[in-house]
Automatic annotation (TrEMBL):
Residues 630-655 have a biased composition (Basic and acidic residues). Its EC number is 2.7.3.9. Belongs to the PEP-utilizing enzyme family. The keyword Transmembrane helix does not apply. This is phosphoenolpyruvate--protein phosphotransferase. Its cofactor is Mg(2+). It catalyses: L-histidyl-[protein] + phosphoenolpyruvate = N(pros)-phospho-L-histidyl-[protein] + pyruvate. It comes from Pseudomonas schmalbachii. Residues 629-655 are annotated as: Disordered. InterPro entries: HPr-like, HPr-like_sf, PEP-util_enz_mobile_dom, PEP-utilizing_PTS_enzyme, PEP_util_AS, PEP_util_C, PEP_util_CS, Phosphohistidine_dom_sf. Residues 2-142 form the PTS EIIA type-2 domain. The keyword Metal-binding applies. Keywords: Cytoplasm, Kinase, Magnesium, Metal-binding, Phosphoprotein, Phosphotransferase system, Sugar transport, Transferase, Transport.
């Protein structure tokens, strides 16, 4: 993204004319490596098409589309011309901003400059500036006024508690461009101030981009700190911008009129009371913008000059944005919209000119505002429906076919297919009359409301019931209905209005990259789709009565967590990988699952009988009776084997020739510790401590963490506990710890890299761990260590705290081996660590350069790849040479084919999901250490995971 800073400025430039200035700019861009030679011709050609003079002494030369390939790095260079350069049309330029951009990134720059352009006489100040810093100050312009308009007010919002209400407020601020990531967590840490009448106040000045005030009221009265909550103000404060509004609010409260705000049912009332910008209710019309580079300076100027033909005001906004419309007479305001190709513009005109002005403006936009435009692709009327892989063109696999997928959760399952694929809906975008359309919508909503109610009543599982209660609240959200109603009165059909509003709100929530809101967005789309299906008369496939096989495109962890394991016999996904977190949850729930079966499974007819083998990764479509019988026999054998394994679950895992390997449990919560011991765990080999952090709205304090850790240690009764310190970032963001967006989060700030940046969080966790252990067997390990220095910093912090707390006892400190550099550095690290635990999920991802959740590639991310085995082997050899132990805690440790190899590589401990413990122990008992060593030695010489799997299958003569 284009940003401006003082380092990009070259002061005191001189040029005889525009051409000479362009030459200087071209040279500056080239010298700094932003563009390759030849870009100057692009600057000149663009200037020949039309002046890039922007106003207030500023020009923004940039290349033509056909010179974009010469851009090497997006950026700008600014040349200051104190004496000015004639830019044509009697315009004098004091600042030329040369842009190197591959697409329409300069729209963002225009938005940044709009404040400068809106000022009375910036040109003079630009000319007089003496230093880059002074120039930057001019560019940053006058202080911004407080933003308070319809988009920042939410009345009767469906929320369950104060924290959610707060998120609703900050969501609005973020959407309006007032704040950036991190603002919410700042606010969450502050104390809310009660203002009386159930009104509350919170404000923050960090991460504020422009001042703004959001006001949100809950659909149902809430309580916070023992007092009622009927409305919450969230202020993004900056300078003095809020002073007038605060005066008004204070007067209102002093006059005892706070209740008017708390009980307001119209946004207009709130805005009137607080002096916010009122939405206009003039006639309006919409038109999509087709200009290739959006509403940049040239087309905006054309629009602006059009306004001169009418004796009245015309305003515009981006239709989906909800923001207050801006006057088309103001170039700076038009540019500040940042409208892009494909976005819908909504024009408003004063009633006396509307009949002439709106058609004229629409025509001008359609004709391209002085630019030649390519027509936009046809609008797809399925906003509610998630982007579907081209399911319609797929052919379902034929009866009797067996597909190879990725085994994600063990077990055999059969049952009718219940494919959940996005449906397509066809409908007329225009309605009969607002009343008739509203009635249709009401009927559809009532019908779906009744269905959801039945689901609430019928579900045995609390978490699932809660999901449906949320769906009910979303269905009744007055804000959504209000918005839909507005669209109906503009002539939309019920389907069009409903799908547009749901799609827009859901996309906004998703765009905020907030876990909670993203989940709500998925819920909203779900509810939206059901209502739309009803309106269109499309029957949604009903879930079969008997246990079924759920077939989906991709499945998120929360999808799996909500499944009713009584009704879902198995899961098949078209995409996804075995080490994705959803697969891990499926295993924890004990539901057999296959992932990455290919998109054609999405075309399966509902009800088709499926046979799923979660160990071999096989999916048989409409299996013949004898295959089903054979599977049934296998299932019985496995059950028997499982029973035998369970009977011996408390015995050690000892090979036939007497070698013992420890088998421990992987836990994702503290409650599971007791059950793990019941299932034969000899300790906990990996406590994924993130869950403590993920479950709360703010960073958990030491006392609450201590209680959680103590619970596990108590349940373990002296058995060792290996805890991994907080591992977030990448695919696991925390609601209150927003991580700046990274192009490649898996290679970004995650695991120990992140916690070392926020030592307070890490210190609190370490204190809680040490205090909870109080001398008991505690092993602390750090995730994602890739550098010696990271390990040393984390270790030193732990030892310092141990001394500080004066805790002695059975403490070991180690690292997870998840990054290849840690394995390669094992001989050095082994001199300092107490132990290693190999996280094969990430180690495989990084060694093979395959995203573990990649929709199509993750099938190849097999931890039995010889390259991964080599890394494990190096780690074990280095550890044993220094008298340290090595565990494996990735999913590979429970893989029946991997167990002999890990044993043969002399790994000391396997840590697996608690349910897998009996079978893993049983597997070890069937093996010989001497043959396992040989097998592992041979595997290390092979070239692919498939060869390794074939070797194991052949050597052991069976695959369990
Ligand atoms: C691993 O990477 O193997 C591991 C155990 O950690 P997680 O799956 O939680 O990333
Ligand atoms: Mg990991």
């Amino acid at each position: 993204m284009l940003e401006l800073n003082a380092r990009q400025i070259r002061m005191d430039q001189r040029a005889a004319d525009k051409q000479a200035a362009l030459v200087l700019l071209g040279a500056a861009l080239e010298e700094d490596g932003l563009v390759a030679a030849g870009y100057l011709a692009g600057l000149q050609a663009r200037e020949a098409q039309g002046s890039t003079y922007l106003g207030q002494g500023i020009a923004i030369p940039h290349g033509t589309p056909d010179t974009r390939h010469l851009v090497q790095r997006t950026g700008v260079r600014l040349l200051h011309f104190p004496e000015g350069v004639q830019w044509g049309d009697n315009q004098t330029v004091h600042l030329a901003i040369g842009i190197a951009a591959k697409s329409d990134e300069h729209l963002h720059l225009l938005q940044l400059l709009t404040r400068t352009l809106g000022e009375a006489d910036t040109s003079h100040a630009l000319r007089e500036a003496r230093t880059p810093e002074a120039l930057m100050q001019v560019l940053q312009g006058a202080p911004q006024p407080l933003l308070l308009d319809a988009q920042l007010v939410g009345l009767g919002v469906a929320v369950e508690d104060f924290d959610e209400l707060l998120l609703q407020g900050t969501r609005r601020l973020k959407k309006a461009g007032c704040v950036e990531s991190g603002f919410t967590s700042g606010l969450q840490q502050g104390e809310a101030l009660p203002l009386g009448d159930g009104l509350w106040w919170l404000h923050g000045g960090e991460r504020v981009l422009r001042p703004g005030l959001a006001f949100v009221t809950p659909a149902h009265e809430l309580h916070h700190a023992g007092a009622p909550v009927r409305g919450l103000f969230c202020l993004a404060s900056q300078g003095e911008a809020q002073r007038d509004m605060l005066d008004r609010l204070c007067n209102l409260l002093v006059d005892g009129r706070g209740g008017e705000l708390a009980g307001a049912t119209s946004v207009r009332t709130v805005l009137e009371a607080l002096g916010g910008e009122l939405p206009v209710d003039w006639p309006s019309a919409r038109v999509p913008l087709a200009n290739p580079h959006g509403l940049h300076a040239r087309p905006a100027q054309v629009l602006m000059s059009l306004a001169k033909n009418f004796a009245g005001e015309i305003r515009v906004r981006i239709a989906e944005s909800d923001s207050a419309p801006v006057s088309i007479r103001s170039l700076s305001k038009l540019l500040s919209l940042g409208a892009r190709r494909g976005q819908m513009l909504e024009f408003f005109a004063e009633p006396q000119i509307a009949a002439d002005a709106l058609p004229a403006v629409l025509r001008a936009v359609e004709e391209g505002l002085g630019e030649s435009v390519e027509p936009l692709p046809a609008v797809v009327e399925e906003a509610v429906v998630e982007a579907a892989p081209a399911a319609v063109e797929l052919t379902a696999p034929a009866a009797g076919n067996t597909l190879q997928a990725i085994a994600a959760s063990s077990g055999i399952a059969s049952g009718p297919a219940y494919p959940q694929v996005p449906q397509k809906f066809e409908f007329n975008p225009r309605g009969q009359s607002p009343e008739a359309e509203m009635l249709r919508l009401e009927q559809a909503r009532t019908a779906i409301g009744t269905e959801i109610e039945a689901l609430v009543q019928g579900s045995q599982v609390k978490a699932i019931r809660e999901i449906f209660v949320t769906h009910q609240a979303l269905l009744d959200d007055p804000e959504l209905i209000e918005e839909v109603q507005a669209r109906l009165s503009e002539g939309d059909s019920a389907e069009a209005a409903w799908s547009t509003v749901i799609g827009r709100v859901a996309s906004q929530q998703e765009a905020l990259h907030d876990d909670l809101l993203a989940e709500r967005a998925a819920d909203l789309r779900d509810v939206g789709r059901r209502v739309l299906a009803r309106l269109c008369g499309v029957e949604a496939a009903r879930a079969p009565e008997q246990p079924y096989i759920l077939v989906m495109g991709e499945v998120g962890p929360s999808d799996v967590a909500r499944l009713d394991s009584q009704r879902v016999a198995g899961i098949v996904t078209a995409r996804g990988g075995a080490t994705s977190h959803s697969a891990i949850i499926a295993r924890a729930l004990g539901i057999p699952a296959l992932v990455g079966a290919g998109d054609e499974v999405l075309a399966l007819e509902p009800g088709t009988l499926l046979l799923l083998d979660g160990d071999r990764g096989l999916l048989t479509v409409a299996p013949p009776a004898e295959v089903l019988e054979q599977a049934e026999r296998q299932r019985a054998e496995r059950r028997q084997r499982q029973e035998q394994a369970e009977a011996r679950r408390h015995e050690p895992a000892q090979t036939r020739d007497g070698h013992v390997i420890e088998v421990a449990a992987n836990l994702g919560d503290t409650a599971g510790a007791k059950q793990a011991v019941e299932l034969g765990a000899e300790g906990v080999g990996l406590l994924r401590s993130e869950f403590i952090f993920m479950d709360s709205a703010q960073a958990p304090d030491q006392a609450s963490q201590e209680a959680e850790y103590r619970r596990v240690l108590d349940a373990l009764g002296g058995r060792p506990l290996v805890v991994r310190t907080l591992d977030v970032g990448g695919d696991k963001p925390l609601p209150y710890w927003p991580i700046p967006q990274e192009e490649n989060p898996f290679l970004g700030v995650r695991g120990v890299r992140l916690t070392l940046q926020r030592p307070q969080i890490m210190q609190t966790q370490l204190r809680a761990l040490l205090a909870a252990a109080d001398g008991r067997a505690l092993r602390i390990m750090f995730p994602m260590v890739g550098q010696l220095e990271e390990w040393r910093q984390a270790r030193d912090m732990t030892l310092r705290l141990k001394d500080e707390l004066r805790i002695d006892g059975d403490l070991q400190i180690g690292i997870m081996v998840e990054v290849p550099s840690a394995a390669l550095l094992a001989p050095v690290l082994a001199r300092e660590v107490d132990f290693f635990s190999v996280g094969t999920n990430d180690l495989t991802q990084y060694a093979l350069a395959i995203d573990r959740g990649h929709p199509t590639l993750s099938a190849q991310a097999d931890g039995l790849h010889p390259a991964v085995l080599q890394l494990i082997d190096m780690t074990v050899r280095a550890a044993h040479a220094n008298g340290r132990w090595v565990g494996v805690c990735g999913e590979l440790a429970a893989d029946a084919q991997a167990v002999p190899l890990l044993l043969g590589l002399e790994v000391d401990e396997l840590s697996v999901s608690a349910r897998s413990i009996p079978l893993v122990k049983q597997r070890v008992r069937e093996l010989d250490m001497s043959s396992a060593r040989k097998l592992a030695g041979t595997a290390l010489t092979l070239g692919s995971a498939a060869e390794v799997r074939a070797l194991v299958a052949q050597a052991l003569g069976e695959v369990h």
